[in-house]
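Incident log, structure service

09:12 report received: a user says their structure output differs between two submissions of the same chain.
09:20 pulled the input from the user's history:
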Amino acid sequence: MKQEFVAKVIEEVVEGIYKAYPMLEEKYGSVGREKCVEDNYHHFKHLDTAYALNETKIFTDYALWLNNILTSRGMKEDHLIDNFERIHLSLQAYDDEEISSYSGYLTSAIATLQKEKQKKGK
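09:34 re-ran on a clean worker, output below:
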């Protein structure tokens, strides 16, 4: 995946997150925004790996692992689900085999996280 493309999508996703949740800016400032950008690059690295290996489970396992870390630090599944949904939405504007695969991995991860959330009764 081209770095410029990934950077554009991440910029769009992070902007959307911070517009939807302005309290993040107040709570975490520019350091939090930088961390959000960094996290989204990690998401794309894992999407790349899942695509290279043609294995959805790579990305869903990553999503579960990351969700466990985030929820142990007081965040909710909703934060990660929202982030993945924003990436998925941004990718819809492009027609490409790799991007289509990414969309499938994201859809699977979102469904998996929603099941986890339901199991916990949240």
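09:41 both user submissions now match this output. Likely a transient worker issue. Closing.
09:42 reviewer note: The radius of gyration is 14 Å. Helices lie at 3-20, 23-53, 56-72, 77-91, 97-119.
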